[in-house]
Specification:
The complex is a heterodimer.
Chain A (H helix, E strand, L loop, with lengths): L17 H6 L7 E2 L2 E2 L1 E2 L10 H14 L9 H20 L8 E4 L2 H16 L5 E5 L8 H10 L2 E5 L9 H7 L4 E7 L11 H10 L3 E5 L11 H4 L3 E5 L10 E5 L1 H6 L10 E4 L4 E3 L13 H17 L1 H20 L4 E3 L9 E6 L4 H10 L2 E2 L1 E3 L4 H6 L5 E5 L6 H17 L2
Parallel strand pairs in A: 3-15, 5-6, 5-7, 7-8, 8-9
Antiparallel strand pairs in A: 1-2, 4-10, 9-10, 11-12, 13-14, 14-17, 16-17
Helix pairs in contact in A: 2-10, 3-10, 4-5, 11-14, 12-14
Chain B lengths: L9 H8 L12 E7 L4 E10 L2 E10 L2 H14 L4 H16 L7 H4 L15 H15 L6 E2 L2
Parallel strand pairs in B: 1-4
Antiparallel strand pairs in B: 1-2, 2-3
Helix pairs in contact in B: 1-2, 2-5, 3-5
The chains are: A alpha/beta, B alpha+beta.
Amino acid sequence: MTQPNAAAPSASDPGFPVEEYRQDFPILSRTVRDKPLVYLDNAATSQKPQQVIDALDDYYHDYNSNIHRGVHTLSELATDKYETSRGKVKDFINAASDKEIIFVRGTTEGINLIAQSYGRSNLRAGDEIILSEMEHHSNIVPWQLLCEQTGAILKVIPINDAGELSMDEYKNLLNERTRIVSVAHISNALGTVNPVKEITDLAHAANAVVILDGAQAAPHTQVDVRALNCDFYAFSGHKLFGPTGIGVLYGKQALLEDMPPHHGGGDMIKMVTFEKTLYNDLPYKFEAGTPYIAGVIGLGEAIDYINNIGIDRIGNYEHELLQYATEAAATVTGLKLIGVAKDKASILSFVVHGIHPHDLGTILDHDGIAIRSGHHCAMPVMERFKIPATARASFAFYNTIEEIDKLITGIDKAKRIFK
Amino acid sequence: MLDLKDLYQEVIVDHNRSPRNFGKIEHPQKILEGFNPLCGDRLTLYLNVDDGRIADIKFDASGCAISIASASLMTEEVKRKSVAEAETIFTDFHELVTDSGQQIDFDKFGKLAVLAGVRDYPSRVKCATLCWHTLQAVLAGDDTPVTTE
């Protein structure tokens, strides 16, 4: 059996109290198939701390009511909590104003909103949209729909064998027809951290707007939308230790002001007559209908939780886990990492010779270890590397070195079965 | 609960490594593709049916061990059986891999019983049944590729 021979990671934060944090996540103490759960599928969704679970419960238990309308006490309480969460999100990504924070169902809805609202009103036949080869389907298909509607054309930045974007190719693709550049901040299938500041600056020099898919980045790295200077940034609550079904679309206020609403309904209007309807101000213009109030409040609680630890500490600790896992994986013969970018977040995507990723996933599950196997909603990435699927272990700050050892032991066990 | 060794046991590993009836029939009477979009398993079945019997059957596939081994075991099982018999076997087999309460009748199922272990892994049932769904469709005269979604 292969034993990872890497010593305990060089602890730049020896005081990182991972065991203490684990206590906050009730699910981490359950068993799966009579083994302690080893949850390594954080890039798909993260687990939720008790604080977030309680926030959801408190809303339904203590002050459930609709927001922005009632003059009664409960409605005021709910409205206050809801809008306080918006402020927390604003600070979390360093947006300039609460008006720039739109609550949506998730990253996917955020990108679709931009495509249908900004895209349909600004793009014409022959205009160009630049994506990258490593995008999640949610940052491909909305643009394909827009292209069908407008006659715009998709251009794709290729990736190299390490899983990094070719910046030279990107520069070649930019031209006076480029209207939109939409790329992942961090790739879900490869873990690559893209040079999004440089991508943004180059796009702006070509007068294109920039959308960053932050689904994988927000839980692992400091996001500063003003420093990045991106025009839009979308991320999901459920990957950020918050509830499923809630996400955020950030947009620069000037752009959002000019965009038409994507949905019509209550809360997004100032006045309605059958002759004319006056839309509400930002951000409500884009929040038609009763939103997921509990989800927004839960997301605010998740952001508090992260802030109490510190996103930089989280990022550093996860980097140690990734480094340890990468070194341990290198000792497993027949294992090949897919995605070895110089700048990577805590995602380990790999294939093992002679073992289909789904078989590996089942064998690991038998030992309580949850990884993802499949194309990770990034089929072009699989095509690029000529593989049908990968196995993917993705780490959060509540994972431990011991769990990575269990993963490696599990892979060894699968190799023995398939020897 | 079945232990994992009952799922990835020697028979499955062996049929994955050296699948039986693997390849193509030149000029087959019937041919049909099956596809599992969830995990990318693909298979093509080639069949010759003679007087209501499966005279020859081969398959071409790429996918996980469960899907390859299941197709290999299926071709062994149904070769030279009548179409009606093959359909009965599929009905029984489907129950075997989905009904956790069912006692496994090793005499009845023979080697196919090794796939019963997927009942503890619901996401993998389609891997084991893709080949059977494709067989059922091709015997029914369908010519549109089968997908398990």
